[in-house]
Here is the input.
Amino acid sequence: MKKLVLDDLDFALLELLSLNGKQSLHELSKKLEVPRSTIHARISKLEKKGVIKTYAALINHRMLGLDLLAFVMISFDKRETKLDQEAVARKIGKLNQVQEVFIIAGEFDILVKVRASSIDDLGDLVVRDLKEINGVGNTLTHIVLKTIKESPNCIYGQK
Here is the structure.
């Protein structure tokens, strides 16, 4: 995929939208000191080119009782399934507690970001739900003790 070349205004606009996607054209125009028509055209271009994929709410998971954040590393066991690694990862992604799924390189093959209500809830996911998926081999679970930085977007190093 070819890298899209953006200018300083595009990056400033992306940064403001990543902090608050509900800002009006008027607010963005004031902050960036450019006409609303320019802001509108830039946002349209960024959406059309796929730089802005969607607008989403950031959820406070603790308010929903999902106090536990964990990362589960999974070995893909091809002897247990006719599915390939990506198909197994997609099945894992359908589980309710699973927030993100990545195919990775290294000792493990799949990395899963999980939100759970308790240790018991996490244990059920790992011991019961994940192990029911053919192709899931060994697992290693890391429980997050404290989140230092969590950001939906990173545009660092694009200039």
